[in-house]
């Protein structure tokens, strides 16, 4: 944001972007102009994603779960959902569903533990919350 | 071509640097978050590419153009990227024509654009 750098400079290596683009069966040749734009937009994309994920953090540490959260919430990021599943505990999952159900109501952020476990439990996406919010 | 599988991923260090530049100073990024972002960026490249090639196909053309990339943004509902991208394209075109002026006649089909990269 506050970078005084000239904006036209690209960071990502064009050659690598080109390789990735060419790995698509529909692409034979990639001209310099589309290559530049794809590279540019990828940089915009990754900064945009990081910024939005950072808004989910409460500390100064950006973690995987913050990014995964954005990915799962934003339908335009559907293409990332398979590679960035939410990794949460079952308990957190239930809390989250309860929270979602409570959305619209005024619900302040309840205690959110940051116990990260690698149980990527998203197969059971049924909304069975045993404890509905106490009203 | 992609000989190794790593060739289909964007370099982690570069992606991390881009992200660090955009976040406030002093923000740490976990290892998993870094790999996640790099992966996401790599997949995005393909995602945009296929959206743009779809436009090319639908118009029964062959070559992918910058305009196709711009239009692809709307198709994948990233309209908010269109403006910055359009600006980038303008700048790019200017830079290219300035370069051409400087070096007299230069072949246009030169595929590789040279870009100066700071330390990798």
Automatic annotation (TrEMBL), chain A:
Superkingdom of origin organism: Eukaryota
This protein's record includes keyword Kinase: no
UniProt-listed CDD domains: HFD_CHRAC1-like
Coiled coil: none
Region (Disordered): 99-135
Domain Transcription factor CBF/NF-Y/archaeal histone: 11-59
Principal place of residence: nucleus
Gene3D superfamilies reported in the protein's UniProt record: Histone, subunit A
Molecular-function annotations in GO: DNA binding; nucleotidyltransferase activity; protein heterodimerization activity
Subcellular location: Nucleus
Gene Ontology annotations for the cellular component aspect, listed alphabetically: CHRAC
SUPFAM superfamilies named among the record's database cross-references: Histone-fold
Function: Forms a complex with DNA polymerase epsilon subunit POLE3 and binds naked DNA, which is then incorporated into chromatin, aided by the nucleosome remodeling activity of ISWI/SNF2H and ACF1. Does not enhance nucleosome sliding activity of the ACF-5 ISWI chromatin remodeling complex.
PANTHER family reported in the protein's UniProt record: CHROMATIN ACCESSIBILITY COMPLEX PROTEIN 1 (PTHR10252:SF54), HISTONE-LIKE TRANSCRIPTION FACTOR CCAAT-RELATED (PTHR10252)
Name of the protein in its database record: Chromatin accessibility complex protein 1
Biological classification of the source: Eukaryota, Metazoa, Ecdysozoa, Arthropoda, Hexapoda
Gene name, Swiss-Prot/TrEMBL: jg13576
From TrEMBL, chain B:
The organism's place on the tree of life at top rank: Eukaryota
Region (Disordered) location: 98-120
Subcellular location: Nucleus
Domain (Transcription factor CBF/NF-Y/archaeal histone): residue spans on this chain: 9-73
Stretches with biased composition (Acidic residues): 110-120
Keyword Transmembrane: no
Record GO biological process: DNA damage response; heterochromatin formation; leading strand elongation
GO molecular function: chromatin DNA binding; protein heterodimerization activity
Family matches, as InterPro entries: CBFA_NFYB_domain (IPR003958), DNA_Pol-Epsilon_Subunit (IPR051377), Histone-fold (IPR009072)
CC per GO annotation: CHRAC; epsilon DNA polymerase complex
Name of the molecule in the record: DNA polymerase epsilon subunit 3
Annotated organism of origin: Pararge aegeria aegeria
Gene label: jg12198
């Amino acid at each position: 944001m506050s970078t005084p750098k000239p904006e036209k400079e690209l960071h990502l290596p064009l050659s690598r972007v080109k390789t990735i683009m060419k790995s698509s069966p529909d692409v034979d040749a990639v001209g310099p102009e589309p290559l530049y734009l794809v590279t540019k937009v990828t940089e915009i994309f990754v900064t945009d994603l990081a910024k939005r994920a950072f808004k989910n953090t409460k500390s100064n540490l950006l973690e995987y779960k913050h990014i995964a959260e954005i990915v799962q919430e934003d339908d335009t990021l559907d293409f990332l959902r398979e590679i960035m599943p939410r990794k949460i505990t079952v308990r957190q999952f239930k809390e989250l569903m309860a929270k979602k159900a409570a959305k619209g109501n005024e619900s302040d952020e309840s205690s959110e533990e940051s116990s990260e476990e690698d149980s990527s439990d998203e197969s059971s996406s049924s909304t069975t919350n045993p404890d509905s919010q106490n009203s | 071509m992609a000989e190794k599988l790593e060739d289909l991923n964007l370099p982690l260090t570069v992606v991390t640097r881009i992200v660090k530049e955009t976040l406030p100073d002093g923000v740490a990024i976990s290892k998993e978050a870094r790999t996640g972002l790099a992966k996401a960026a790599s997949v995005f490249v393909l995602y945009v590419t296929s959206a743009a090639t779809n436009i090319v196909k639908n118009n029964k053309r062959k070559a992918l153009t910058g305009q196709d990339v711009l239009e692809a943004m709307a198709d994948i509902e990233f309209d908010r990227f269109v403006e910055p991208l359009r600006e980038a394209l303008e700048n790019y075109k200017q830079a290219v024509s300035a370069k051409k002026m400087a070096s007299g006649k230069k072949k246009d089909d030169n595929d590789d654009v040279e870009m100066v990269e700071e330390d990798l």
